[in-house]
Amino acid sequence: MSIYKYTDRFPCEYVRKRNTIGRKSDEMKRCKRSVSLILALLIVTSNLQLPYFQPRAAAAVAAAEHSAVAVPEKFSFEAETKIPDYSIQRQTFADGSQSVVFLFENLQPAQISSDGLTATLDLTNEVREEASISLQLSKAVVEQLLAEQLALQIITGKGDLFLPQLWFADLLSAGAQVLSIEIRSEEFLSKENLVSPGSYNFSITLAGSPAADFTHELTISLPLDRSKITDSRKVSICYFEESSRQWQLIGGKYNAISGQISVPTLHFSKFAAFEQNIGFSDVTSEWAKDEIDVLASRGLIMGVTEQNFQPEATITRAEFTVLLTRTLYREESHSTMAFHDVPADAWYATAVQSAFELGLVSGNGNQQFSPNSAISREQMAILAYQLFQYKKGTPKTNHTAVRFHDQATISDYALEAVDFVSNAGIMQGVNFEFAPLRSSTRQEAAVVLYRLLAYLGEL
């Protein structure tokens, strides 16, 4: 019989010997222990799912395989079966441009979030250099989205889209239909201040008819070229207004992890991201200059001239109301004025009316707003608090009551707002006094607005 002698020269090298004595030597025992140890390590490290290891002759192993003993289920091998959830059609045109169409016939459980609220279609691994990316959702998919009340997240890496459940309920109230979504990217001829790779045109077609304006907001996300960005707080998305042939600012929230900027919108158009750098020569206060520059670059505040901001000038109730409504980036109301002392042709009239309709301002009673009066600090606190509630959709917030030395001079109706802005670091007192009735300067108001937007996570 043969034995295998382990050598010290290399752990896997064995020398074959002929043994005529008919008994196992010490080397044989040592060899078998080494082989068993090596195979055990191989099983663990390579994750081999073997039910057992037996150093038997081939005949014995064959007999064991045909015995009545079943292999435990956990050791069975079965190829995973995947059901395709979409098909792909690619096309190259005569001018060299490319398009890709994804046809979805059903949704897979893995595409639905664990909380059962969102279905995600992640196509980043399939999208190549195509300028046009289209998705066609079958009626079955739309019916599932409606029946399970799902929102839809579409990820392409070249423009992403989030459609809330309410958006589907409104758009498809007449019944489920085939839904087509297209994201088309275009290069720019003029690239001044452009920080996205190009422009992105979003469109939706329902049963063959385009849908451009919506009741509920959906969210678009654009990729950014980070090498072109100097200050992400100054980056905003713009849409191209066909009537004026101008790019209009609509804001946006930058995500440092994904390298994208996102913004809610009520309509589809052509979108792109820009970074503007605007400053004023007469703003010198270190505690306000950066905040004013950022807000001006985002189109939220303006100077009295191109170079001057007049930071020490007192800000009025109308002016601060205009600042608040600009943060919403939405079309202002043209309804009949709710306040008798707000002329319909005043430059701030539509902003004040919009703020009133949204519950941001309520006036001084008797349908009076006092638009040209200086806004007090407690009034500013109330408006900032009401904008926060509107954006967050919460009527109240939990916060600790802050006690100032001049607490007794704060109006009862302003106490909750003052507590909020104080706890959030949006407005602070001086020497433990809030000075609720004192007026504010333009630069103080700008800093309050900046801190509120930062608290909301929009900067």
Helical residue percent?
10-25%
Cα-to-Cα separation, first versus last residue: 81 Å
Q: How many strands?
A: 17
Report the uncertain regions.
1-25, 42-84
SS strand fraction: 15-25%
Radius of gyration (Å): 34 Å
Q: H/E element string?
A: EEHHEEEEHEEHEEEEEEEEEHHHHHH
Mean pLDDT metric: 81
Structural class by secondary-structure content: alpha+beta
How would you sum up the major sheet?
A: 9 strands, mixed
- Globally, the shape reads globular
Q: Count of helical segments?
A: 10
Could you explain how this protein is built, in words?
By secondary structure, the protein is α+β, with helices and mostly antiparallel strands. 25% of the residues lie in helices and 22% in strands. Strands 3, 4, 6, 9, 10, 11, 13, 14 and 17 form a nine-stranded mixed sheet that branches. Strand 3 and strand 4 form a beta hairpin. Helix 6 (317-326) crosses helix 7 (349-357). The longest helix is centred in the first third of the chain and has 20 residues, at 26-45. The chain is globular and about 70 Å long. Mean pLDDT is 81; it is low at 1-25 and 42-84.
Structural features:
25% helix, 17 strands, six-stranded mixed beta sheet, alpha+beta, disordered N terminus, 459 residues, nine-stranded mixed beta sheet
Chart the SSEs and their pairings.
Blueprint lengths: L1 E5 L7 E5 L7 H20 L12 H8 L20 E7 L5 E7 L13 E5 L9 E6 L1 H9 L3 E5 L4 E4 L1 H7 L7 E8 L12 E8 L2 E3 L1 E11 L11 E7 L4 E4 L3 E3 L4 E8 L2 E6 L10 H12 L19 H10 L22 H9 L19 H16 L22 H9 L18 H14 L4
Parallel strand pairs: 4-6, 5-7
Antiparallel strand pairs: 1-2, 3-4, 6-9, 7-8, 8-12, 9-10, 10-11, 10-17, 12-16, 13-14, 13-17, 15-16
Helix pairs in contact: 5-10, 6-7, 6-8, 8-9
